[in-house]
Amino acid sequence: MKKLTEKQGFKSVRASILCILAGLLVGFVVMVILSFVNDWITIGDAFHGLAILLGGPFSSGTAQYIVTNLGDMIFYATPLIMTGVSVAIAYKTGLFNIGAAGQFLMGTMGSLLVALNINTSGKPVLGILVWILALVVGALFGMIWGAIPGFFKAVFNVNEVIVCIMTNWIAANIVSWVFGAMPNLVNSGSGKSGYLITTAVTGNGTPKAGLDKLFSGSYLDFGIIVAILLAVLIYVMLTKTTFGYELRACGANKYGARYAGMNEKRNIILSMAIAGGLAAVGGAIYYLNPGIEFKFSSAYSKLPDYGFNGIPAALLGSSNPIAVIFVSLFIRYLSIGGDNLTSAGYNKYIADVIIALIIYFAGFSRLFNDILSRRRKAAPAADTAQRGAIAAAVSSVKPADPEKKPETTEKLIEPEKPKNDGKEAEE
User: Fold this and answer.
1) Which of 137, 141, 129, 286 is nearest to 223 (CA)?
2) Which CATH number does 63-339 carry?
């Protein structure tokens, strides 16, 4: 048990749980305060609202409604897993990928250019092949876009955050321009403005793989399987391969990695390229779903939230790709519960506040680990000191050995003999 608690993985999980509990506690306090300042909300509503949040998709509705909500929760967590793993792998290499939003858009554009321009209606096998091609093209678009800040960082030592922010907005404008020049892909028959047709029209949507029967009425598809497989693959690559070790070594100390013979410039570019490809796969999986519409006309005015939500997913998961899967599902779990908060008199954005608090506390996860580690170290030290003090006290009052002769500390002085003169002897 002691060996388990000393492992870094256990410490990371412990810190994440503490962050979640702290965020929920502070969020509940906020709900209680709102019950005092609003006449239409009671203290009982605060407890009811907390129960709804913790219930997530199970908090209300019929059995069918719960099943649909659960499937949608998993579906909407899929792109979040991808952007979270994207940020995580960059962070392991000592980089901060804040450009996942732009990479997400580039992956969306690349995949839709393929999926919407090839019609495979009535040919399901060919449709699957086109879907795979669209996914690969979208990933390549994202890898190229992610390699740009990696190149500037490796070659010119330009801060990747600055380049990522610039590439985000460049990507948003490129997407708007490209699809704006393709009126044949615009969904003009539904009365909406600025939307593209979906893959339901061309028959190249993401396969359901039977998940539509398991979670009937939801958007859930094969994309979640792809996301989990990629997250596991990245975890194995980072922890079990030489290339993954080199990436982590560059993140720990790029100068030390260079001294050891590693090509840190190449590793930086490849890390950002892989991160860009992962974020792009998130966008491709999301918009290749037949039921999801892409509003290209406003891409330049608002970046996708998934690109930035991947940052807290990676932060709360300690940049562990496997942990990012569970963190993403948990974030969506709370969001689904937040949608039902209106039944308790609260705005649904209370869930966003609580998620933000959890993420805020995640920034102090290392502090939590240090505090707990110090307590664990201090307890044995205090116990050892106490035992030492008791032993010293016992030895000071130990009885003397009766067979041992007492040692005298005073030296006996013999009396001086009287000095007799010769005269006195004669008398």
Assistant:
1) 286
2) 1.10.3470
